[in-house]
Amino acid sequence: MKRRPPLSRRTFLKLTVTVAAGAALAGCSPQESPSLPSDTATGEATSSAPPSPTTRIVPSDTSASEATPAQTNPTETVSPNPEPSPTTSPAYLAVAHGPDPAAITRAAIEALGGMASFVSLGYDVIIKPNICTDYHPPEYATTTNPSVVGTLVSLCLEAGAKRVRVMDYPFGGTPQSAYAISGIAEAVEAVGGEMHIMSRPKYTRVDIPQGKDLTRVEIYPDILEADLLINVPIAKHHGSTRLTLGGKNLMGVILDRNQMHMNLTQRIADLTSLVRPALTVIDAVRILTNHGPTGGNLEDVQQMDTIIASRDIVAADAYATTLFGLTAADIGYIQASAELGLGTMDLTSINIQELNLG
Amino acid sequence: MSLTSWRRVRQAAQILFFTLYIVLIFAVVQKRVAPALADIFFRFDPFSALGAMLASRQWIPKLGLALVTVGVTLLIGRVWCGWICPLGSLLEWVSFHKARKRAASLSPKWRLVKYFLLVTSLALALFGGLTLLVLDPIAIFTRTLTTAILPAIFYAVNSIETVAYKVSFLTPALDGFEGLVRGTLLPVEQPAFAQSLAIAALFFGLIALNLLAHRFWCRYLCPLGALLGLLSKVSLFRPLIGSACTHCTRCAIVCQPGAVDANPEDFHIMPSECTVCLDCMANCKPDDIRFRFRLKPAHPEGFDLSRRQALGALASGAAGALLLGTDLRLRQDNSWRIRPPGVVDESAFLSTCLRCSQCMKICPTTALHPAWTEAGLAGLWTPLVVPRVGYCDYGCTACGQVCPSGAIPLLTLEEKRQAVIGKASIDQNRCLPWASGVPCIVCEEMCPTPQKSIRLEEAEVMDSSSRVITVQRPSVLRDLCIGCGICEHYCPLEGTAAIRVYDA
């Protein structure tokens, strides 16, 4: 007795071939690639590019000549009022000092015009802190301050973002363990943000049209597609680049970091030209002054209670160097980024607003 | 409860324990489980426990749970094999039609192989060698899942996703899937292991043997089954055929492990071979197979080891121990033999390690790999750190937490950070700043020790276009280096790294 199978082999094969052909067709169809940097470089870049520094002349409240280490002039130049007076124009670079990381983060963003000037209703936001390892809790200043990241998530959600994802790709340990040890997972999830794992199969190879040395890179595409990317490095010592700041922090979004080290300074600048974060917030609540980027010594940690924020990643990085007693010219990738026209490292020509929150 | 429901309970137990085993494998991979539960199957395994305790000459409290299995076996026989063992269940579920006929032509004499293996393994253990623990069924299954099957599944999923991500309309669905499984069920990095093909070959070979006889491995080879079989000879309750038997041989036909000796002269169930599946009882027409209380040991079977065979097995274990001991690999410092953190004495490690590969399974960076001959044949499939593939994470103590026998000691994070597993050294002939005048300090950047175990010295060198540039040249501070291998792992040089960790 021969029972008729529910699906004959022939029909099965026919179906399989049809489905496969359909999938292949779909796969070959010219896909719109929003990640293609040509868009970013032309259309979008103009909108998200930092405002031209020359148009903003230093206003009366902060003298540019005082863009020296922040802690040396704590009281005289700054107003005790955490909210900048509504009459002042938004700062090009905001620097906030104070014991409460959340408060100074809010104040710095407010000085730039508030999060509403970055986030529109329904925005999909990505925050990229530095979560490089799962070795040490935040007191060791190896990973971005969780309170700073949490505050930024809140600000975005308050401004109407539909989703705020926080991500990094640690080199020491797994993302899960590093997210947990850094305290960032807890801070972010408490206020409604998502910790996101950058998954390898999703990485895409894109061109860097402005790149001088690095012209092609495998990158996590969401970074390029997000409505807003906020770059939140922690200011740290680093063996080869001397300091790891905003530019260096962007290395977390690509896969092959070995290729970067061949010509690190230029390649960081090239990568910056592709990623172009619309907002850079440098966490200098605690800075790591030696044995970076991995740290592990509390003697190397210095409490600075400072947040630096700007639309211009180069200016933010340039200011951050002063906290270490250096200048932007000392850090190769800041210079290279400035030469690529990604921002200004000339702190005398920009509107810097310093705020002191007691 | 009726017999039918007991059979259902058995099947449910098999599914339950199998599922638990698989869930624990995934849970352990993600550190989502208390370490006490992670190695639970090994802790109930008397073969591994007995071997490790004989070889290391100590009572290992963690493995004391194996006494429970021994106790249950002494009460009603090889319940472990028929109800619990995940490999046994798998071999029961993979059944081939023709196996029954083929099994009939296999001499029952072959059953002695497992007893021979058992005695040889334990004799070897007595001389300090645990090499034959690679044949423990739980270890075989765990090792294969860890090094071959799970990586293959991950590879499949990752490959499909990589292709599917190129189709733009699938992206939201894939993102949703990723959010659910990445970092929980799927590891972030695609794992790959040394020895995975050899390990998989052994496992699938065992399954293929089911073509010759149902549960071939359990019948003829499994040393754990042999140990429990010996205990079952004196178990208090044994399945016995009553006087109402009509010699219809239905029990012999349905018996999974072929434990019914259908010889009309002496028609009986061999307690040492019975896996307590109850199928015979359910199929007995006169309904006269029962668990009956007996104090007297079961009478010997034709395939039991004779005194001469037992002595032969002991002698081969001893001879094996001596021969393995002559391996040059054990007498010589071997730079590739980097052990997990906290392991100090190599020979003590070899006589405690169960070859279970739990450590490889949990290692978040895939730093641990099964050895081939790096530690001599005696160290087959013991864990080695292979830094070029994965570094020992400075923030992790997982391997010591899941090691069932304590071969990898349980360290606090502070202790682990002091535990030296090797020493790095730099090959100046290949290192980029030393040999080629190319700036690179990745090793120093990655070094996790608080004072940095790599020192940088500036030097003026000529680059490829004959310009004089300043590079930083790394050198290792041997006093500080703990050998974690992250420098070797990330060294951007192609092929072998210019900085390498050697066994210290």
CATH superfamily membership of chain A, which one?
Answer: LarA, N-terminal domain
- SS elements, strand count of chain A: 12
Q: Would you report the number of β strands of chain B?
A: 10
CATH topology label of chain A = Rossmann fold
SSE order of chain A: HHEHEHEHHEEEHEEEHHEEHHE
Q: Based on helices, strands and strand pairing, what is the structural class of chain A?
A: alpha/beta
Query: Which regions of chain B have little confidence, pLDDT < 50, spanning 5+ residues?
Result: none
Largest protein-protein interface: A-B, 39 and 47 residues
Q: Beta-strand percentage of chain B?
A: 5-15%
Measure the end-to-end span of chain B.
62 Å
Q: What does the secondary structure layout of this molecule look like, with pairings?
A:
The complex is a heterodimer of chains A (358) and B (504).
Chain A: H1 9-28, H2 37-48, E1 93-97, H3 101-111, E2 124-129, H4 146-158, E3 163-166, H5 175-181, H6 184-190, E4 194-195, E5 204-207, E6 216-219, H7 221-225, E7 228-232, E8 234-238, E9 242-244, H8 246-249, H9 264-275, E10 279-288, E11 301-310, H10 313-322, H11 332-339, E12 352-356
Parallel strand pairs in A: 1-12, 2-3, 2-7, 3-4, 7-10, 8-10
Antiparallel strand pairs in A: 1-11, 5-6, 8-9, 10-11
Helix pairs in contact in A: 3-4, 4-6, 9-11
Chain B: H1 3-29, H2 35-38, H3 40-43, H4 46-56, H5 66-76, H6 79-84, H7 86-93, H8 99-104, H9 112-126, H10 137-164, H11 171-181, H12 196-208, H13 216-221, H14 223-232, E1 237-241, H15 250-254, E2 260-261, E3 268-269, H16 279-283, E4 289-293, H17 307-325, H18 328-331, H19 346-350, H20 358-362, E5 368-370, E6 383-385, H21 398-402, H22 413-418, E7 423-426, H23 432-436, H24 442-446, E8 454-462, E9 468-476, H25 486-490, E10 499-502
Antiparallel strand pairs in B: 1-4, 2-3, 5-6, 7-10, 8-9
Summarize the structure.
The complex is a heterodimer of chains A (358) and B (504). Chain A is an alpha/beta fold and 358 residues long.
